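Recap from last week: sequence in, structure out.
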Amino acid sequence: MKSVRKSGSSLIAALLLGSVISATVAEAGAKIPSTVPYFGLYLTESFDLNGEPDNFYADPNNPDSTKILRCSSVDDEICTNATSVMVIHNLPTCVIDSSFDCIKSVWAIDPSGKKIEGQFLNSLPVKGTTDRPAIPSMLLSATNGFGGLWKIPGVVNSGGTENYFVSTRISSWNEKAVGQKLSTTQYYYGQVSSGIIPVKPVSGNYSPVNSRISWGRDMTTTNTPPTYTPQKERCTVVDTGVCQLPQDFPDGYRFGMSVQLAQKVSGWFHGRIALPLISVSPDGKGQIVSIEAEPVKISTLDFTIPNAQIPESVRKVIFNGSDWGVMGADNGGEQTMLNGLSDPLTMQIMNDMLPTIGDKATKTSQYWSYSALNTWQNPEIQKCTKSKDELGGVVTTNALTYSAGPPIYNKSTGSLEYKVASPHFEASGAVALGSYDLVINSTVARCIYEFSSAPIQAEISVTTSDGEKKVATTVVNEKNGWLYLSAKGFTFSSPTINVKLSQEKVVAPTPSATPVATVTVVKKSVTITCVKGKTTKKVSGTSPKCPAGYKKK
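Predicted structure tokens:
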């Protein structure tokens, strides 16, 4: 799995690859003046798998994002004349097209442990605006909407339906020569994102989302349909006359999905799930990747504050002339979406602004999703997951912001470290409780620590920003080639999670001293003749002696 290339506008990459997209966005990549009357944050794990239909976007390596143009087809001259093309691919369900990448199955596990298989109903939308047949030369399967509507019988969500929107999106950059047709290039995986969302239908004046003509400051689209209800609730996905509105998952259930991939994935995944179980099995030249887990609750933020209340530490970052993803607020101010929930600046700015709003979330929602992560942040981990055929592990958390990439290996402490941050309180006012799970390939773990094949032990600790260690419920076990570690019940705002692996040294038995051979010398029996007058007597033995009164003859 190749790294996703960043374009001239860092926001574009953030928007396309699983950060936040809003239909109310007014500008992208804009500078925020220090005189703005209000300023705030819009941070939400919206996981916009419905953000963009299948498309090809040509980037002429121009920092002006308005020059990143959509190609009308794979052989459009715009793409042919470009040196770099972004490919956005929403996978079909395998019953639609199983030639390459597709969603194979969806299921739920009820509280008793019973597995309930999902039933595919239809694609969403049923007919997308950029649907196309498969492109075998690029290993691209057919396109049909953003994903599928599945029914899981008896698994009723908070909206009273048994319906779930299931989607997997792959985004990547194809590098090529000017004049080379895109259809002759090799398509590699960049960002792989999957999600399961409980939904219920709401009727209204809705229609399938159209494509952007270009990625620019006005996020240009053609005849943009509404993606919100009149009550300003955001639709998960829209179709003709229908908004599929997100709902909460039923309590006590685990959910899973299996994806068929024509190529092999490597590196790491990040998940908005808890207690995951993963399985990667070969399938021709590709793999079947299955992940089953519990959904998690994530506290999100959507607020503005007066300019005078903006902390000085935030002012120095926001008003320094950099471009930010912004949208107009109702009170005439600006809100920033920053550059993704895993960006270090996002965590810093959020932490600095939380005291101003009482360290409380605007909304708390449930999610079940995972995305690919790059491994370049840490050489020790990268060298142990460099195999193109090896999935290194999965890191999951319900924190709003988190470290980018897999855990960092701290050589001095021998720990894997992972930073998270989130509001201390949920929207209801209840204390938000954190969850963290690390599922690491056993081979990778042993490579990082230079361990043998003997069993591994682990110790998990959660340390606050002021150095206080907190108690958390932890689980550690190793099964089927994966090491599972879990920490739950810790509180936010900004803890660091430390995982320290160890292994008992095998002490070889002390060899016994070399035995000294004992030699027994057996003497030969001797016979002598003894006489006394005319009497003769023979005496035998090893040292024979004549009796008293006898003389040896």
